[in-house]
Amino acid sequence: MRSPIPDYLLEVLDACGADAGAVADYIPELAAADPDRFGICVATVDGAVYAAGDADVEFTIQSMSKPFTYALALADRGVDEMDERVGVEPSGEAFNEISLDPETGRPRNAMINAGALLTHSLVDGEDADARSQRVLAGFSRFAGRDLVVDEDASSSEFASAHRNLGMAHLLKASGVLECDPVDVVEGYTRQCSITVSCRDLAMMAATLANAGTHPLTHERLLSRPVVRQVMSVMMTCGMYDAAGDWMTDVGIPAKSGVSGGVIGALPGQVGIAVFSPRLDTHGSSVRGVRVFERLSGDMGMHLMDVAQEGRSALRGSYVSEGEDPVTVYEMQGDLRFAGAETVVRAIAAADHSTTRVALDLTRVYRLHDVGRRMLLECVRRLELDGRDVLVIDPERTLPPAGSADGGLHVVDSLDEFVAAGEAPGPATG
Ligand code: GLU
Q1: CB 402 within 8 A of CB 393
Q2: How far, in Å, from the CA of 160 to the mean position of ligand 1?
Q3: Which of 63, 188, 256 best tests ligand 1's pocket when mutated (most atoms within 8 Å of CB)?
């Protein structure tokens, strides 16, 4: 069977292709872009990639670089230090507004230029060159291939970067920027001039959606706390002065760039990139915004349209056959509070007819710490009630880190346990 998804993406391009807006002209190289280009790529967190239209056409990354440089600076400096240096409040202002928080002197967030300039200066590197190298190498790993800087675009933007230079000097004058302001604008302009395609951007976004692990190379590139911070700031500040509309209409953490790209990263699901150069008054691609509105509606991608995790966590329960039957609770999916609560509730309400009770985590692919604590407490209480508790957990998901089986009776499968004729021993820890 041919997958229907690429056909669906073509349909979306067709439906969202009406002309509107104008290509950015304040950077000479951008003014020369073909305004009719239109491409899309969707990459899932497990590495499937779907593309349609001009998905392989390259363009400069511009402001879509901001979340990724923020991620690198967060990885280098830590979340606490970055919070002291760059705010996380939406400014409700245009991308190039010259604004700093009057009380702290900090830029309001890392998605507007003032914050992005400071963020670029906070990436590890002893000088401007080393910082630029770090950014290019980092982006290349997020994309999964070696990216390059479009030197012509970079010098044409730098030659007219008066506003960004003004902002960098202001950051220096207010004492928040440590490096040379001209170096920082030059580095930031190079960062904005890294060339990418929708395919690259979708992979970069999918790395964020996949909590920092690249979906194809499987390299862990960012920690979960860093990704959470980046996605939160994208959600609240990524679309500048249109952030509120974006949240209600689309509900996907996103970032646009004046070259005409828009990226979105839906946690645990997909990275999306759309490219079409004509921009609206906020500086975002007109067709890009339309595509996101359409995808969010059609595919139920709004972040507030949450999965009913609790309802699907407990797959079922049964009593095994044989001489020494076991009551087995089968769990599945990503277990957080709501999921673990349904399991705990079912166990607490049950009137067990067997001495042996098993928690089967074979189909649990992620156990959040709150889920782990709740299930461990469940084991403890069942044992206090005189039950022998067995944990079926081939991936060793339940035992706390660094404690082997953590005093639990863990087996790979119920069959293996029954075949061994083992009797569960009392917990020791
Ligand atoms: N390099 C552009 C600038 O700083 C990026 C702006 C954008 O993409 O929103 O002006």
Answers
A1: no
A2: 12
A3: 63
